Amino acid sequence: MQTIITILENMPYILMGSFITLYLVIGALFIGFIIGLPLAIGQVYGSRITRLAISLYVWFFRGVPILLLLFLFYFGIFNLISINLDVATVSCIVLGLASSAYQSQIFRGSIQSIPYGQLKAGRALGMTDSQSIRSIILPQALRLSIPGWSNEYSILLKDSALCFALGAPDIMARTHFVASRTYEYLPLYITAAFLYFLITLAGVRLLRYLERRFAIAGYTLSA
Amino acid sequence: MTNENNIKNALLSAQNISVTLGNRLILNDVSISVGAGDLKVLIGPSGAGKSTFLQCINQLIPTDSGSIYLEGERINMANNASLCHLRQNVGMIFQDFNLFDHLTAVENISLALRKVRNLSKEDANDRARKELNRVGLANRAGLYPAQLSGGQKQRVAIARALAMDPKVLLLDEPTSALDPELVGEVLAVINDLAAHGMPMIMATHQMDFVRSLATEVLFMESGSIIEQDKPHVLLASTSKSRTLDFCSKLNNLRQVAEHSPEITCTANSNT
Ligand SMILES: Nc1ncnc2c1ncn2[C@@H]1O[C@H](COP(=O)(O)OP(=O)(O)O)[C@@H](O)[C@H]1O
Ligand SMILES: [Mg+2]
After folding, report:
1. What is the ipTM of this complex?
2. Which of B12, B85, B102 is most worth mutating to test chain A (most A CB atoms within 10 A of its CB)?
3. What is the pLDDT of residues A52-91, one digit of tens each?
4. How far apart are CA A34 and CA A26, in angstroms?
5. B85 and chain A: CB distance < 8 Å anywhere?
């Protein structure tokens, strides 16, 4: 009984952490999209130098642990150039940079799976390459990217718990804080796990809906 | 006619085109000109370079050497505006249609009208519907490519090219990806264009069509034009041309196919 009361009492506090968690994940997905899409376009259509530079960027962010990136940016880079941002924002930016590397590879794969003939057809009609890419390639590639994006969302959501290490007041941090005060470790961590699970499910469901909503009639990707 | 007159009088002329891809000479100094009412046909075995040649004419494939003239004006191939100008005036029909999969039939046609011609959405759609009507697909306007048959897809592709008011049309084996029963509907559209005097360069192996409509046949092999003359000359039964030899082989293949239906597919995909 006491356990239930403790959980209920602290629930609003922990639930407030969901906003921070969502801020981290949605912010990071957004930053990752804004950077990742141009990276993908550059990697497919860019010059040799552009492609090399992008590959290096992607290697770096895929090759270094997220936790290390968080420390590197928060205590290192942002400190060095004396930019003072709150923990959540720094975490959001770092997660976003890492995600941009992964998202660029999702988009690159989808762009490359659109038949080259469609770009040729655009050119043959007198459209510029940038017009063709924007109005022919990307609308199809982005549709194909939704499943990969959904995967990226659920991975980011769980990576966001790492920001606890910097002290970002997300679900993880708040749960840990309450648990270490009340000693109700098991029920509180189960509650937190359940929250993460719900947020994952909601996001994946939403993306699944979008996938169906934007599906092209009669069109199935041949395996 | 001298070469210079040829270029000046032609609507579209490609002169001395050579192309190397991956160390291999794919096109070796080939030339072609089309004037009003011309229907020039490229014939030749698979791998001869017909598709490459057609795509060099509107510069979808860059050439090592040679020049393209549109209405006597030499195209500056290093200049993007100049290339877009060339491509707007030269329509292209591909073997496998290359429709935009995410757009309906009418949107496939209106896209370039909006982006290149800067038409408003309504004007572009009106024009697109007129073109669909012209190829007999007015009642398919709202369907996506995946919902259309091969013959319908190719007719949408033709309508898409015609909507840009091209001065010349390039067609790369427009019927060879189609099931035999769908070839007729596409050829009917092309026939109609020929009857209206649309200048065309077409790679095709539809010999009946070539005999009755081509103004000139160019036989290609290994990247060169080997023979070039009026169809009734090259295809006369007394002719000793490579063209006739090649076409009679095609014909044999077709007859064999007709007698044994189970190999129809192979015969068609080879032609
Ligand atoms: N991108 C490429 N790189 C190297 N060789 C190519 C390329 N594209 C086509 N080829 C070669 O060019 C030759 C001509 O091809 P193509 O123009 O498609 O012939 P056709 O249309 O007459 O069948 C073929 O031998 C083909 O293998
Ligand atoms: Mg070909």
Report:
1. 0.89
2. B102
3. 999 999 999 999 999 999 999 998 888 788 778 889 999 9
4. 12
5. yes
